[in-house]
Structures are given as structure tokens and as C-alpha cells.
Amino acid sequence: MLATETKTSGTTAHHASPALAEADRLMTVCNSCRYCEGLCAVFPAMETRRSFADGDLNYLANLCHGCGACFYDCQFSPPHAFDVNVPRVLAQVRNESYAHYAWPRALAPLFARNGTAVALVAAGSVAAFLFGFMAFNDPAVMFGRQIGEGAFYRLMPHTTMALLFGAAFLYALIALGLGLLAFWRDIGETRRTLHDAGYNWQATQDALRLRYLDGGGAGCMNRDGDPAKDRRRLYHHLTFYGFMLCFASTSVATLYHYLFGREAPYPWWDLPVVLGTLGGIGIVVGPLGLLRAKAERDPAMRAPEGRGMETAFTLMLLALGVTGLALLVLRATPLMGTLLAVHLGAVFGFFVTMPYGKFVHGLYRYLALVRFARERKALHGPSPSAKRALAKPA
Amino acid sequence: MAAIRSEGSRPEPRSRVDVLVIGGGNAALCAAISARREGASVLVLESADAFWRGGNTRHTRNMRCAHDSATEILTGPYTEEEFFEDLLRVTGGRTDEDLARHMIRESKAMLTWIAEQGVRWQPSLGGTLSLGRTNSFFLGGGRAMLNALYATAGRLGVEVRYEAEVTDLAIEDGHFLAATLRSGERIEAGTLVAAAGGFESNIDWLKRYWGEAADNFLIRGTRNNTGAILRLLLDKGVQKVGDPTQCHAVAIDARAPKYDGGIITRLDCVVFGIVVNKHAERFYDEGEDIWPKRYAIWGRLVAAQPDQIAYVVFDARSLELFMPSLYPPIRAETIPALAEALGLDPEALDRTVAAFNAAVRPGTFDDTILDDCRTEGLTPPKSHWARRIETGPFYAYPVRPGITFTYLGTRVNRDARMIMADGRPSANMFAAGEIMAGNVLGQGYAAGIGMTIGAVFGRIAGREAARHARN
Known about the structure:
The complex is a heterodimer of chains A (about 400) and B (about 475). Chain A has about 400 residues and is mainly α. Chain A has a domain at about 110-190 and about 215-360. Chain A contains 16 helices and no strands. The radius of gyration of chain A is 24 Å and the shape is elongated. The two termini of chain A are about 25 Å apart. In chain B, strand 1 (about 15-20), helix 2 (about 25-35) and strand 2 form a beta-alpha-beta unit. Chain B is built from twelve helices and 19 strands. In chain B, helix 4 (about 95-115) crosses helix 12 (about 450-470) and helix 10 (about 335-340) packs across helix 11. Chain B has helices at about 1-5, 25-35, 80-90, 95-115, 140-155, 205-210, 230-235, 290-295, 300-305, 335-340, 345-360, 450-470; strands spanning about 15-20, 40-45, 60-65, 120, 135-140, 160, 165-170, 175-180, 185-195, 220, 240, 245-255, 275, 310-315, 330, 395-405, 410, 415-420, 425-430. By secondary structure, chain B is of the alpha/beta class. Chain B has two domains: about 1-245 and about 405-470, FAD/NAD(P)-binding domain, CATH 3.50.50; about 250-400, Flavocytochrome C3, Chain A, domain 1 (Alpha-Beta Complex). The interface between A and B is large, with 57 and 64 residues.
């Protein structure tokens, strides 16, 4: 028994996938080290466990923000024989978990070749709107100059638009909700935690600030172990808040329409346009920055099989932003009809692919943060035996 | 990792620098940064590559510094006097008092100085209960600390060369002239800071003192601490300090790799069971004192057993009372079956466990205090936390001596200047870190003190070397 059996193993014999088995092995290494416990939420959550079943690992993987600090801080990362690569393996597990919890199960394979799937749906959606517009409209309307209140609805009646997008959005909500519910049950959580206002408030703050995308204060490391080169948090904020502003713009416009009977397009200074313009800029600049960060990411930390999904989602957001802004700028020209069709096609494509792409990461992470809020609270007053088990001089 | 590799970038071939630092860990980088901040040109020669740089610092986690009041990261004051008393206790008085007190005094400033070099401290969290007052922890651990030091050194203009193994030192009459690399390149420098670690990964050297037993030692840290620089210095007239058999050694999982297993192969279960040797016999009081005060003696205890192997045996009740470790315990339904699995004589282990169980007196088990669970009429006794090993399944961890670092070193004075064999201080040679730890640590260990020695004497050595070089 001397230096021969250096291959390490996990805590649980059976896992649904090799990535989960590897994650178990890594958490076993990390749990006996714990040097990274100040970096983010994953390691404190890990420390409350002694064994790692698939549900635990799916939770930890979705709690991980992929900041990368632990990879460069780790004395056991490759080329060390222990081969500890937490960012990559948890990214793999995370990607698999999206498919694992997808509703309906029959559509789970969409995650496998997600880049292709999303591209096809988006292209099909845009094409359908273009053909639809042309089929139902006189070329003079489609390619003519439309201005004034109700200009958009001369191309597609508002009721049709509202019904179509309402249905797509509703479907997305149901599919997302059922997937999230499956995740919540599988990690062993309760309705009570889910409904707790305190945990949700904590998780909301953590999510809005991306608290755990900062390496514990030292900064994240996307490449070279240098936090100064990582601007992912900024770009993610631009993307997220840009998206929320676009959503707010649409919501305000809907209220205008139904409450005040005011029809789009609105003047440039009006609230829906201001929100949409700022949001549009966010979802153009943010995704461009994120794409660049992805391209620069240390290959060692990448989960290559997730690349298509990430790129597809980011490009989709970029497409929403670019087509929306183009529509705003050129809405008084004969190009409006075509641009409206393209923009609506992109939005529709985005809605229907929401439950089957990278969009879900934010929701799963939010739930993981809700659970972590509960676990962190429990940690604040550990029992004496738990404290003992944690104590370890170096 | 591209930029880590290029930090400090490829230096221009240069014939002479002010300060040459040999080594690449905490002590070396503190010396390099400190010398550079004094205005000297500095070249660091690290024998490892960019990933493995930093020697044992990669495996560290904290540093013990004196402080007069609680801080954001420390739960209470730790005075110079208390630090010194702790040092006296763990070394049994085998320390250079003047040097030790000087180090402790200087350690107070390290809390700020280290942070100024870009290293981040972490508030004491759950994992550090017993050290939350005395020791400051690096956010992300020792490698994170090293990364910060290397980044700062690079920004300041310190040149770092990796895979730069020094094979010879030109020293004349206590005066350093030049170092020769394996490539044959000769580098002249105004001063030398030797911060290249101890000799613990040189098994042949260990064998001089430990005999064949050293073959069974596991080295917890870097494989690069071969003691090559220490050897050269001692051979060229530097006075040695310390007992060559003294080192920091703990009992670690016998399944750990020969080198670089680090913290994760450590086991904290000794107090919960009994420890037997390959003849299935106990050999030391497992419950002598609380574990943080005893963990560092078990390496030497196991080293003294036949074949340098021992087994910690405990039952199901204790399984979750200690920190999880890397390898799972070996498990069996009965004691004889456990013995089989371990390759021990089943009857012998059964006898040992039965004798132990019979000697256990009733008591109230509490591993947070020195409880009243003990044995009576047993040799050796188990003074605390003695509970019968009777609830299956039964578990065992095989353990071997895990050497952290050795204490034989170069003698230095308060300026970290090496003292020559004739008692005179060297004109331009300084030492910091493990290579001179024996000045402070005659024996024993207190958590985090190795990093204190490295950082304090590294900073002093760099400063003094720079001043000398510029005069």
C-alpha cells in the first residue's frame, strides 16, 4: 500500500453519466481540501455534504457561475495527477442537467445539437414571418412606407400578433416551469423553501448582482489566471439588464395598447421606445462582449459540447437587439415591413427555444441560489459536531 | 496559462544582476519583491515550470502572524508574547530566542505587507475553527497567494526564469560571485538570496539519517525540494543549523502519491479509534491531547514502526466525526475481516481490539474537550475519547509518514544573512524560508509558522540584499 493506488474515486458508486461520476470524484477531492471555500457558493455548499448523489451534483453544478478562480487557485488542477478541473466538469454537468430536466422529455435531444436546433428554429421562424407577411399583404403595403399610429398593424393585425406571441410565451413558461419543478424535486428540495420570501429575496440579490461571479473578491479568471482580463460580469450585466429593459418596453407598450388605446409605433421619447432602445443597446454590446470572452476562455476550462448552445443563445439575443434597433431606426422607410417580419421572427424563435437552450441557465441558477440561501442560513449556527468536522489546521 | 508562463517574460541574457534569488516560493517571491522595491534589479531562478512553481507554498493555506487586536479576518488578539510561548512549547525550547522574537515582531507587519503585494486574506470561515484567532488564511489557498505574488513581482519588473536549475555556486571566502545553471550559463550577481527549500524530496539524503525506512516516506509537497542549493551552501562553508532528522511529519493516507499529495491526504481520525502497527499492536496513546496539538507527532511515531506503516481502526459511530479525506476508509463487517482486508493477522487484531475494549472505562464522550473516556490497565493507555470499538461495520485507514519539510538549514542572523562555518557573517549571501527554518524550529511545529518564516525572512533578506548590492 505505497503510492500505487493514486487514482482517486468519488463517494457514490452509480451515476447517470461519466460527467456526474467525475464531478463526484472532484467534490471528494475538494471536500478534503476546502482551500476554495471563500471563492463562491459551491464550496460552502459542498462542505455540508459527505457524499454526492446526482441530485446534489446537479445542484452544485447549477450553483457554479463558471468564474474560473478555483481552477487557477488549485494546486491539484492539471497537469497534477489529481486532475481537478471544477469549472469544466461542473459546466458539463450543468449542460447535461438542462436536458435531463427538460419538458417534454421527448424534446431533451434538442440540447444535444443545440446550436443547429436553435439556428434552424430561428431561421424557420424568420422565414415564416417573411412569407406570411408577403402572402397576407399587398406588396405595396409590405414594401411601402408606413407611418403613423398603427403602422405595424397594417402588416399584421394586433390581435393576431398578440395571440401568436402570447401562445408562444405561454408554452415557454409552462415548459420552463415543469423543467424547473423536476430539478427542484430531484435535488430534494421542498415547496416550503421555494415559497420562502427570505430565501427568494437573498437569491434575487445574489442573482441581480452576480455575487458569485467575483472569485470571492479577487475577481474571476477567464484566462491566464488574471482577473484584470475578465469583464464577463460587466457584459453579463449589460445583457441581462438589457434584456429586462426590452421586456419592460414590451410590457409598457402592451399596457399603452390595452389601457390607453395608444398604438405603436411610439415617438422616440416615449417610454417603450426609450426602454427598448437602451435595452437593445444592452443586448447588442453585452452579447458581443460575452462572445469575445467565450472565444478567449482558457481551453482547459471549456466544456466543448456546450459551446454550440452558448453561442446560439448569445447570437439569438444579439439578433433581437440588432433587428429591434434596426426597426427603430428605419421604421419610417420602406424597409419597415421586411424588418418587422425579421424582428418578429427572431422574437418568436427566441420564445419557442427558450426552454431548450442556454436561456434556462439563469432559472436553474436562481433556484440553486434559493436553496443555497437556505443552506447558508443553516450554516450560520452549525452544531458542535459539524464545527468539529469542519475544523482542520494546515 | 500562457500569461502565467510569460510573467516576467523571457529576460534579456544578462551577465549581472543586483540580487539573484534562487527558489520560487513564498520566501523567494517576498525577497524578490522586497529587493525590487528597494530599487535593485532582481532575477528569480525557479527550477520548476510555471505550473509547479512555488515549491511547498502551493500546498499551504495560512500564515501565523502576531496582532494586537481582532481584525476583519482574525477573531481576536494574538500577542508577540503568546506567539513566542507557543513556539517555545512546540519546539521544546529548541529555538534561537533572539531570532524567533525578531521574527515574531516582524510578523505583525506582514498582515499588511502581504496584502499590499496583492494577496487576499479570507475571513475565518467554518473550516478553520481552531486557528481563527492566530492564523490568517489566503483566499483560495497557497497557489492563489503565489499567483498574486508572481503577478506583483512581474509588474514591478522582477525577472523570473522557470526550469532554471542551479547546479553550482561560485563562493569565495564567504562571498557569492555567480551561479551556474544546468545549461552551463553563468549568472553573476551582487548578492544572493537562497530560498530554495529543504531537502525532503531527496530520499537518498533522508536515508543518511533514517536508513531504508526513508523509502517508505511520502513527501506531502513538491518533488523539487532536493536540497541541491542547501547542499552547495553547506559544502562551500556556510554554517549549518538544525538536527537533520527533524522535520514536519504527519501521518497521512498510505495510498497517497509519493509527492504532492498535499493537504487532502491527511487524516484526522486518530483520536476516534486505535492505531496499530503491522503486527496489529498499539504503540502510542491515541488520546493524549486534542488533535490540533498532536497531529504533527504521528509522522515520526509511524516512522518508528516496522515497515513505517500503521492502521487507524475505528467503528461506525466515529465515521462522520472528522473531516472527509481523499480516499475512502477500508471497511469490513467484523474485526477479523477488516484485518484480512488490511493484510494483518486477524487473530492478533481481534486480540488487540478485545483488550482495548475491555480496558475502556465508562465516561461521557466529548471530543471538543479532554473528556473522561479513558482506558485503565492498558499499555499504552488511551487517555481520552476511548470508546469501545464494537459497532460494525468497522473501518480502517492505512497511514504512513508524510514529510512536509526538513529543518536542517543554513544559519542566519537577524538580517537573514548567512553565517559562515567560522562564525563570520557572509558578505552578500542571505537565506529565507525552509532552507533556514531550522534557526527558529529546532523541532515540532505550529500551524502556519513555515509561511511566517518564509515571508518575514524573505522580506528582510530581499531588503538587505538590495541595500548591500546598491552600496
